[in-house]
Amino acid sequence: MAFRLFERNRTSTIIVMYSLYLYFLGLSLRNTSKALDIFDDEKRSHIAVWNWIQRFGSSCHIYNKRKRVTAFIIDETIIKIGNRHFWLWISIEPIHKSVLGIYISEERNMFVAENFIRSLVEKYGKHTVYTDGGTWYPQACNFLHLKHRLHSSLEKSLIERVIQYFKDRTESFDDYYPCTKSMNCDLEHVYNWIKLFIYLYNTTI
Fold it and tell me: 12 in helix, strand or coil?
């Protein structure tokens, strides 16, 4: 996928992939662009790295139907985008621990939970849903005719580990990805970032 996406770009695909690798290891956009100075044919700005993230992220597919899904472990956490707060919903699979899906919302309620879980069912079929004690989950599962269970300490540890991994990186939204649209932003730039992040995360577990 990556080679098809960048084969017409003037920058070598190897350099693009290397920059994405460095960035998602934790380097800032500016430090990533500086690290590319070893390739002395031309300079690449931090804006170029940002554009590569957006292009690659827009083409990534989170959902992998090849892996068997046994259950949905779901949780949500607050992230900051610009000067606003949003809820990031995440679902993982308990056996191979890959991320199955994400959703960003301004509200946290039964209707949002239902929409997110419904999107998972449409892609992976019906499975038992494991969550914390949020009251919106049992209501959503009941409406969708799904079994709901409170997650065990192991399942809680799995989802919290993934969420913390995300939060360690999404803190950069406020520093590097301020949303210039105070209202009516479709958050496409954030979804592209997260999809690429998940793609790289799922390929390494």
Answer: coil
